[in-house]
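Notes from the pairing session

We agreed to fold both candidates in a single pass and log them together. This is the raw record for the first candidate, unedited. Please don't reformat it; downstream parsing expects exactly this layout.

Candidate A
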Amino acid sequence: MFANPAAAAPAASLGFAPSQQSQQSQQSQQPQQPQQTQQAQQAGSTTAAAAAKANLHALDDPNVYHWICQLTYGPNKEQALLELGRKREQYEDLAVVLWSSFGVITALLNEITSVYPMLSPPVLSNQLSNRVCNALVLLQCVASHPETKTLFLQAHIPLLLFPFLNTTSRQRTFEYLRLTSLGVIGALVKIDSAEVIAFLLRTDIIPLCLRIMESSSELSKTVAIFILQKILLDDAGLQYICATPERFLAVSQVLTYMVEQLTLQQTPGRLLKHVVRCYLRLSDNLEARRLLKQVLPRQLKDNTFGEVLRDDLGTKRCLAQLLLTLNED
């Protein structure tokens, strides 16, 4: 059976937060350009923006240097966290600068560990929650960069997030902490890496994600199941989860519960997509396939989600492949 989750650690919301509603486009008297031309222009502008970003260097910006000094030595640490977080989309090498600058990572870890005493009992204020979330945003930046990801793992920094993931309070301050901490782990697994999965399998990330998938907000559930899916897609992760009936059942029971909850929602598409893909990947293991024939939720067999999946050809195809695999002799 999975090990018991670790005690308290940090959390918050990062790149997975819902996007703001786009502004309504103004009506134009000019004739519309052909769709292919518009797509080509958009692709060109995206490529140009990426190239421009790659040519920018964080330390060429005097404001970056100023806020790093404030974060490490100055009295304006809270503002420094916010301002540096705004710079992460502007400079590709910000993660390298943060990791290499003396005292920065220590300052970020101090921000995280300083709120541990407020996790139980749950007395975290909005201001402190936002402050820690801003620190976690910068850690996510470091976790996602190819030059700093391995160093981030070798320092075992992800373990410091587990106390936040282990919280159960439904207060918004704690939901943000969980979501942002999940975002850091999500950044680690986003690009397939056997090293990352091997590290996570030595931790309690699977039982923590399972609990969040059962009882947290929809956004946190989405990030948690994304992490589980990425672990399953790795051969070592699939083997680990299917190594014992207890582990497999722990995962399948939570997936079944999620399916039952999704039948009550009007728009279950995003979560359903991940649930179906988790089941499909589990079916690649012969022993798990045998058990899935007995425990796969009825709603995935009787077209309960037919209308929901009508326009989602990818998930519809995955579900059809799952059912075909389980019906094989």
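Candidate B (folded immediately after A)
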Amino acid sequence: MRTRQSDRWRRNMSYYAKLLIAAVGVAQLVAACPADAADVYPNRPVEFIVPWGAGGGSDQTARELSKLLQAELKVSFPVVNVPGGTGNAGMVKMLSGPSDGYSISLLAWDTFALLASRPPKWKMSDFITLGIVIQLPSGFYVSQDSDYKSWADVEKAAKANPDGLKVAISGFGSPDDLTIHQLAKQGIVLKAVPYAEPGERYSSLLGHHVDLLYSPIGNIGSFVSGQQMRPILFFSDEPIKGFEDVPTAKQSGHDISLPQRRAVIVKADTPPAQVKVLSDAIAAVVAKPEYAEFLKQELASPASYVPTEAAASLMESDLAAMKNMAAGK
């Protein structure tokens, strides 16, 4: 009797010991999995904020990058359009969120120029630049049937009727606005009309609600190729290939050249390891043939990409130039 009880006790102990060992193994596995998953960044979608409406150059750039980044990092980068305040609304949305690397934003120079002309609540130290991803010249455009056949025609009309010619711009404080103020100091007085939505700017020109449109060249390429709009002046150092008959501002006696640049940024204090993952991914995707083709279609510089450290230096230089313009220098 005692032997049978002893055997049963040994069998029970062996059974419970096996259960205990199995339980410990499962617990270790469960404990290890979340930690391993958390160490992998990114492991969920990364919000890509565009501080402008759909259809414009910033939106097009972000959507092209979103597609390529998704393939590179194996998570989605949903584009979220947050227009308003010359891009300020989108900046506030990103900067008010956590510094966890799951929200990035496209910063267009339209918005960056606010630091020079209408200082917002945010500053350069509030974000980290992951890289400048596109650089392209801007210009003035007229509708195809406009009576203004040349920039000389515009100058003549502006001098005869100061503040009579209307220009659709992205917002007050933008490079568009700074350019118009600079022209005014040189005797060409134009009236700026801001539109937060790109589509509204384009339709305002096509509907003859304004006389001119200020825009980066790539944004309205389809309207130009479709012979609905035509460039009349470029703000670039050199004539634009394919538009050699269109003068630059410098050729017309106006020393104004503010290129449009767009950068991808993330909130400051984002962990360095996550910043590196993002910046490395951007460097990888902008080197792909698909992105080179996108730059070509946008008539942008093929050497548009500027990495983090060099981007910060270039931004400081651009900001100084824009501050001088805002001060009338």
